[in-house]
Amino acid sequence: MVNTVTGSTRPGLWPADRQPQRACTAGNFDEWLEAVAAGHGVGVAPEPVAQRHTHPGIRYVRLKNAPPVPVHLALPARDAHPLAERFFALGARDAPDGR
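Given the sequence above, the corresponding structure tokens read:
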């Protein structure tokens, strides 16, 4: 299962020679979740999904040696709350590329 619109584990994260075959696509997270629960395919999701979106029809299994998924911090270009600016500055300081 691939969420083609909002998925954070999109096909481009897989090595070109090891991309899984797409069984089904979904246009949003809820469709993705329900399609997996209905048995239309399996999906890959970051760990917070397993923690926040329990579903009686889904069993989450941790993937060993999976590469990290990039995460980005977004805030308004101007007039951001001062605490958001401070949080951004802390995140930028600890980012590998300094952004």
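The chain has a mean pLDDT of 82. Try to locate this feature in the token string yourself.
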